[in-house]
Design brief:
The chain is an alpha/beta fold. The protein has two domains: 7-426, 3-Layer(aba) Sandwich (Alkaline Phosphatase, subunit A), CATH 3.40.720.10; 462-598, no CATH class. Helices cover 28% and strands 15% of the residues. It is built from 19 helices and 22 strands. The strands form six sheets. The chain has a ten-stranded mixed sheet, with helices on both faces. The chain has a four-stranded antiparallel sheet with strand order 15-18-19-20, with helices on one face. A two-stranded parallel ribbon has the order 3-14. A hairpin with a 4-residue loop joins strand 19 (464-471) and strand 20. Helix 3 (71-78) crosses helix 11 and helix 8 (203-220) runs parallel beside helix 11 (294-328). The chain starts with 6 loop residues before the first helix and ends with a helix. Mean pLDDT is 90; it is low at 1-46 and 591-599. Residues 50-399 form the Sulfatase N-terminal domain.
Length: 599
């Protein structure tokens, strides 16, 4: 819901930078507090803006049931709040996904599309101007104290951490490369101090102490706080030695805390239909993967157990954080958000451990939120994404949404009446990364596969549940997850279908459904702002169509049949528009919209 804020006040919040020095200006502080307390989400027992605690794990799956092995997270957040079970990332790789989360923008708009330069990592984040223009900076401008500990971005290193220092935090303690993923040899860098090595200490124990310290600082402060805790678990372990030697790191099973090493000895990767299937699935390099032998399957089970064990430290961390907030008596005015930067697969579609694909295992992630006004034990079916999280936090804090947000606030309370969407734009550029002891199976002998660039749309609406993708090889995938939940049967025809042989979906032929999905993807792959939220309005201005079902009306068949198709001219390693084929769709006016009217 939109907040009843005066335009002048909105401008004040958008333009005034509230630093630690000028917060002593009581008139400004009181004005900000008065505006922020107008949010309908605030606790009835407090006139203060709400506190926000965000926990982001690294590579945590939803589809493989990891959330069933974290009892403290379940008890403190899931059971006391709402589970958003249709929550997706928009890029299944950590750095692009995190930048999208922090900016509310798709990766094709941030142009941070990889984990390392030239297409990604912390240097690209800085080069794109986001160090001065992302969520913690905006929250500071709105009167929040902000804190962070753990992993922020890849390529944030012991050499470049001060070039420049990360903006936007009153207190910070970042993990730094090449030690970020070393469970027993991590390096952290506090505020603007020099990096400190914690070799010999488990990184989850280290971050727990740092997080509780920042939480104490936040709870003792006079202003509302935003604290992010970003443990590295259950990400694979990476020995920094290879990176220091200039070699490609090898990612191996995560290392749990010693007290958790004995757990789950009989647990195995869920044996769903897509686990190491007898027949190949997918397209491109995925379809060429051999079936895994028993040695590899056994290793995958070991890898899976190691991930669950590594998560136990995160579960204890969350227990400690929530217990500390409870002791402060500020829990009733605190929102707690739990999620991950991307999902993970192990053995599905014959894949070794990893992410970077558009399959459900990689793009669905946990999202639990508890706080004032949020139903306890709730389950929300609305489609939500990581680019919706910054707008949601703005909504919670009572800040007007930014025009450059590609997402929209998610349903927080039963009274939510904001804009919803049925689509997720999933995009990826460059190489697929595979992990584990059996990962060195790429065509060049390295744990990577080239040409993993694709654009896709995940669509969940009334009576339909689709995933449609176009790869840079111009191969296509179409899965109907209502009948094929494990994405084993690609419906996209290998030859042009005949009218008598085409299957029927939603009462229409397969080719008619594909024409709509392709047109929708054509808009979404280059959308900005409101066009990312309401893409059908680009195709059919005037609001006559707002869903796939409405677009399938027979009267629109000729219009969708004339659309330029989504395609690639070559497989680029980053977002290069010249490689990505047609950009602007036709509209029902038959004249097309000018580029700057919708992009």
């Amino acid at each position: 819901m939109k907040l009843p804020l005066l335009a002048a006040t909105s401008a004040l919040l958008q333009s005034v930078y509230v630093s630690s020095s000028n917060l002593n200006n009581l008139n400004l502080q009181n004005a900000l507090q008065s505006v922020l307390s107008a949010s309908p989400h605030f606790s009835s027992s407090s006139s203060s803006p709400p506190n926000i605690l965000l926990v982001i794990t690294d590579d945590q799956d939803l589809q493989l049931d990891s959330i069933d092995y974290t009892p403290h997270i379940t008890r403190h957040i899931r059971d006391q709040g709402t589970f958003y079970r249709n929550h997706f990332v928009t890029t299944a790789l950590c750095c692009p996904s995190r930048v999208s989360l922090w900016t509310g923008r798709q990766a094709h708009n941030t142009n941070v599309t990889d984990v390392h330069p030239p297409y990604g990592g912390y240097p690209k984040f800085v080069d794109r101007g986001f160090n001065d223009n992302f969520l913690p900076v905006w929250l500071q401008q709105a009167g929040y104290d902000t804190y962070y500990t753990g992993k922020l971005f890849n390529a944030h290193t012991v050499d470049n951490y001060h070039s420049p220092h990360v903006n936007g935090f009153n207190g910070s303690d970042f993990l730094l490369d090449p030690y970020t993923y070393s469970y027993l040899n991590s390096t952290y860098q506090r505020n603007q101090d020099a990096p400190v090595s914690y070799e010999g200490y488990h990184t989850t124990d280290v971050i727990t102490k740092k997080a509780l310290g920042f939480l104490d600082d936040a709870l003792e402060g006079e202003r509302p706080f935003f604290l992010t805790v970003a443990p590295v678990a259950p990400h694979s372990d990476v020995n920094p030695g290879r990176a220091l030697a200039g070699e490609i790191p090898i990612m191996t099973a995560p290392i749990p805390l010693e007290r958790h090493e004995h757990l789950f000895k009989d647990v195995k990767v869920p044996r769903n239909e897509n686990f190491n299937p007898d027949e190949p699935s997918g397209v491109s390099w995925v379809r060429d993967l051999p079936q895994q032998n028993q040695t590899v399957v056994d290793y995958n089970d070991h890898f899976y157990r190691s991930r669950l064990r590594a998560l136990q430290g995160v579960d204890e961390l969350v227990d400690a954080l929530v217990s500390r907030v409870e002791q402060s008596e500020k829990l009733d005015n605190t929102y707690i958000i739990y999620t991950s930067d991307n999902g993970f697969h192990i053995g599905q579609h014959r894949l070794p451990p990893g992410k970077t694909c558009g399959f459900e295992e990689d793009i669905r992630v946990p999202l639990f939120i508890r706080g004032p006004g949020i139903p306890e034990g709730g389950v929300e079916d609305s489609v939500t994404t990581h680019i919706d999280l910054a707008p949601t936090i703005f909504e919670l804090a009572g800040i007007p949404a930014r025009e450059d947000f590609d997402g929209t606030a998610i349903p927080i309370t039963d009274e939510f009446s904001g804009t919803r969407h049925e689509h997720v734009t999933v995009e990826y550029w460059g190489r697929a990364v595979v992990e584990g002891d059996y990962s060195g199976i790429g065509p060049d002998g390295l744990p990577q596969f080239p040409n993993n660039t694709y654009k896709s749309v995940r669509l969940l609406g009334e009576g339909y549940n689709f995933y449609y993708s176009v790869w840079c090889s111009n191969e296509h995938e179409l899965y109907d997850l209502s009948t094929d939940p494990y994405q084993l049967h690609n419906l996209y025809p290998s030859t042009t279908p005949t009218a008598t042989k085409e299957p029927q979906i939603l009462g229409r032929s397969l080719s008619q459904v594909i024409s709509r999905l392709d047109a929708l993807l054509l808009v979404l792959k280059s959308c900005q702002g409101i066009t990312c939220i309401k893409p059908w309005d680009v195709l059919q201005p005037g609001g006559s169509v707002s869903s796939l079902r409405e677009a399938l009306d027979e009267g629109y068949d000729a219009f969708y049949g004339e659309q330029p198709g989504v395609s690639f001219d070559w497989c680029a390693a980053g977002y290069i528009i010249a490689a990505e084929g047609a950009q602007v769709p036709l509209t029902t006016s038959r004249y097309g919209l000018p580029w700057d009217a919708w992009v």
